[in-house]
Amino acid sequence: MLAGVLALALAVVLAQEPATPVAADPEVSLSMRVNRAIAKGVERLKAQQQPDGNWAGFEGEHPGGLTALCTFTLLKSGVRRSDDAVRRGLARVLDTEFKSTYSTSVKLLLLDALGDPQAYREHADASLDFLVQNQVAGEWAYPWGGADASNSQFALLGLRAAHRMGLEVPDATLVNAIKALYRLQDEKNGGFKYELNRQATGGMTAASLGGLRVLEELGQGRSAVTGLLRKFQKQHELADEFMTERWHPAHNAYGPNAWTPGFQYPYLWAVERWCGLTGRAKLGEHDWYEEGARWLVDEQGDDGAWLGTQETCFALLFLRRATMSVGAPAGTTPEELAKEIDALRPPRPPEPQWDLPRITDWLVAGPWRSEGQNDALLKLPFDPAKLVPREGGKIQKRAWTRETFKPDAWVDLDAILGAECDHGFAALATGLAWELDRPLEAVLWLEVEDPWKVFLDGVLVGHSQRVQGPADGRVRVPLQVTRGEHTLLVLVEDELGPAFFGARLTGPDGKKLEPEPVLGTAAGKSKGR
């Protein structure tokens, strides 16, 4: 089936352009890789469909929602309405009683994408009525909980789909939605939040900006709507600045100083919607589509998926903006081309050998708290270059204590220090001694969720402002160590909850070092600069 999809794509390509070597130009490589990724993703979605037309997932909370999303994605990815997967998915959607904002909104997106509004008028009317009736103080919620910006962004997409199908959305629904959106804006940095007590994120900001563009579109000719939007023009510009300054294809901005890998794929789709609805080709100097597409084609799994089914849909909806505008080598079969395109994919980075023990001997001090948002490591209360950690010594009114960690599990620094590290950071130091004349090439692997910094003999060798990431031991810090005794200092910030920490030292390939350096607090008594 994949060969069939590629053959169809190549037929369009060869009809448009003369033959061009795949690797002759990096732009050619990206374009072909994007279309290869779309073909593989489509096949993955089709393979996951059940015989009854359903895509399993979230049926208790959002009946029909995932099936509507997958069917909508297939249509937007170029699959014909007559395709069996689309027909079976649509039949399942039309036979399901929808009960949530998410699923109802995506159903409307699907019905609009079919391009035959009269055929599905009854379903669209019922879905629009559901969204209008379930708006609360301008927002939308889960059936069982409070309102939030995520439910609301989908509801606005649903309203737009209904409007495109010729249905009338009440003025009050639009006016109340504008007021509710701006209640969730951070007054200081301009970003939008999921809920009032959260920090602004890139995903919610892009989604909200896209939602505001929807409201502008639906409000044409309605003075109550257009007048209210003008009232918030300065706030809108501030949000635009937040997003433009913090755009990164792999980093979903989290507050003013940090980023999170959480909700990465809906974040990218939100950026695509916002920029697509506003006709925006760049964010500052960045070509958002090219950068996002490069990240996505590298992240796709060998089976065609991006993490789960939802993430695969969001990735495809982003990538589908690609156009077939480049050629393929004459005489190349779809299967051969697929292999050539896959060969362009960079190799996966190595992972640590998981059965290697963690570093166990540490000096620990802290925590130091901050009043700001994820800025504890941005304004340190001490100079790491002047630090000489020793058991019983003091550092900014905190004592260094020697701790022995588990070799086979991460630890909670809250428990180690006997104090909550929330909105603060802890310091950990250990020694590293190397006896050979040749430099040691090594990698320090960290298990951390939030921002961190690593210093070798007081020199910064790695850092990140990532927040709420997985503490899966894949944070990679390359080290080059000369002969002598060295001090390794790790600063670990904690957003909320347990303060995860674990560390391994391996070779660049993730395997055991041969020979091994000496690790532990006694190994770094002097600094071997």
How far is it from the N-terminal to the C-terminal residue, by CA?
A: 59 Å
Instruction: List how many beta strands DSSP finds.
Output: 20
CATH architecture assignment name of the domain at 361-524: Sandwich
Largest sheet: 7 strands, antiparallel
Structural class by sheet pairing and helices: alpha+beta
Q: Which quaternary structure do these chains form?
A: single chain
Summed over residues and divided by their number, the pLDDT gives a mean of 89
Question: What is the general shape?
Answer: globular
CATH topology of the domain at 361-524: Jelly Rolls
Strand content: 15-25%
Low-confidence stretches: 1-25, 322-330
Rg over CA atoms? 26 Å
What's the CATH first level of the domain at 361-524? Mainly Beta
Total number of helical segments?
A: 16
Helix content: 25-40%
Quick recap of the structure?
The protein is α+β, with helices and mostly antiparallel strands.
